[in-house]
Amino acid sequence: MSFTISPSPRVRRSPFYEATVADGVVSFTSYNHMLMPTSYGDPGAEYDRLINHVSMWDVAVERQVQLKGPDAGKLAQVLTPRKLDKLTVGRGWYVAICDHRGVILNDPILLRVSDDQYWLSIADSDVLFWARAVAGERNLDVEITEPDVSPLAIQGPKAADVVGALFGDTATSLGHFAFREMSLEGIPLVVARSGWSKQGGYELYLMDGSKGTDLWNLVKQAGEPFGIGPGTPNPSERVESGLLSWGGDTDDETNPFEVRMERYIDLDAPDDVIGIDALRRIKRDGIKRHQLGVQFDYTERFGLYDRASQILKDGSRVGAVTAHAWSPRLERNIGLALVDRSLTAGDAVDITLPDGTNTSGTLCELPFI
Ligand code: THG
Fold first, then answer.
1. 92 CA to middle of ligand 1, Å?
2. Model pTM greater than 0.85?
3. Which residues of 220-250 are buried (b: 16+ CB within 10 A; e: fewer)?
């Protein structure tokens, strides 16, 4: 099977697109109406760079929804059931955006850029429309836009060496999820300590989309002594680390308590926060499902699947495997499971893979590593 993607302004390209093509990208996914690289053709090498060296990722698809104006803070608070009064300028927090049922609509990083300016660095759903609708309905004085901002992630144990070589101590001394505005040869950036891996790293938020190739090449050059190479958000590492992928691990009914996001929810957040009533009720009544890991007995290495596996116990369906991965460090197939609350770590389950193959596995606590 070989096909191409028809060009269209609806399928947007990243400012790093040309650079990733030059560096040998072989596959993309679609995310926030934009193309995101998913492979450079050597999964083993890409994983090894992330775990042992350093890797650079085009994650421009992590679009920013900017809230700016006198009511920006008010809107940010209404949008998330995490109390924001201690979120200071220059810090980012992982938050949930929920609907009125308490269902997760997105799990962004919320950055406070200035007193009256916030960025929601979003996962793959249309937060721009949601935020505009909420602001309109609540008569808030705030401008909501998608600015020209595109993150490039530098991840791995040697990420600090690369960022140190580029920016010095001011960048490497940033605390977790802290950020600051900087520039590199005239390219305007926000440098943040963050990224969708547990290997440590930084994200350079490019603030001029015409400079994508320049930034990519500067990072590549600075990273050369440390073995940098292109990579992507890594399906194996993220499952090992138990990082959530909205829309993959969540469905149209998933609430934060089911997927280990309870620590980012404040039930004493203001009463006008969207979903807070539902979340209080869910907390009181208890959840029906929860997220666990699963270790597969199936030994043929998993690739990528576009559907969930079904989990069965005594012949009845009790949940689904929402993400499958071969773990090079554990040397086995693992997954993220959303299962009935009656199941717990240590339980043996039967599993039907997306292709119909029957196998089995054992549930376990997350993260794997
Ligand atoms: N970077 C930026 N924007 C993003 C992502 C990112 N937007 C979409 C998506 N990723 C948001 N989702 C996550 C999920 C988890 C984490 C970060 C972004 C994460 N979690 C840690 C954990 O779960 O252990 C720590 C969270 C904490 O303790 O605050 O890092 O990657 N710009």
1. 10
2. yes
3. bebbeebebbbbbbbbbbbbbbbbbbbbebb
